[in-house]
Amino acid sequence: VQLQASGGGLVQAGESLRLTCAASGSIASRNVMGWYRQAPGKQRELVAAITRTGGTIYADSVKGRFTISRGGADTTVYLQMNSLKSADTAVYYCAYGNSWQQGFNTWGQGTLVTVSS
């Protein structure tokens, strides 16, 4: 599986941004996709994930502000980020797994999101 992420950029605090990740290759029928992020000096953390059937989870820090969704015959995942804060500044990575139980095993290249205050 290959992942291609896009949509990062520089925004002001309070503004919105949408990330897109397109998956290609041998996509499992019960796959899970998601987004991780890594801020400077911090560990990579899971931001949001979505199963093939639409189940979602979010990090507490983004609940109510970020929305993960699928499109493109379920091979594309989006992360709509609203009310962005400077704390959201990080490199965001798209992730893929063959199933929720097996966890993520593939990551795409990162896309930088910078939120200025």
Structural features:
117 residues; four-stranded antiparallel β-sheet; 11 strands; 53% strand
- The fraction of residues assigned to DSSP E strands is over 45%
Form type: globular
Average pLDDT, all residues: 96
Number of helices: 0
Task: Provide the succession of SSEs.
Answer: EEEEEEEEEEE
Global structural class: mainly beta
- Using only CA atoms, what is the Rg? 13 Å
Fraction of helical residues:
under 10%
Distance between the termini: 37 Å
Low-pLDDT ranges: none
Main pleated-sheet profile: 7 strands, mixed
Number of strands: 11
What would you note in describing this structure?
The chain is an all-beta fold and 117 residues long. The chain contains no helices and eleven strands. Strands 2, 4, 5, 6, 9, 10 and 11 form a seven-stranded mixed beta sheet that branches. It has a four-stranded antiparallel beta sheet with strand order 1-3-8-7, with no helix packed on it. The chain is globular, with a radius of gyration of 13 Å. The model has no long low-confidence stretch (mean pLDDT 96).
Helices, strands, pairings?
Layout: E1 2-6, E2 9-12, E3 17-24, E4 32-38, E5 45-51, E6 56-58, E7 66-71, E8 76-81, E9 90-97, E10 106-107, E11 111-116
Parallel strand pairs: 2-11
Antiparallel strand pairs: 1-3, 3-8, 4-5, 4-9, 5-6, 7-8, 9-10, 9-11
At a glance:
The chain has strands spanning 2-6, 9-12, 17-24, 32-38, 45-51, 56-58, 66-71, 76-81, 90-97, 106-107, 111-116.
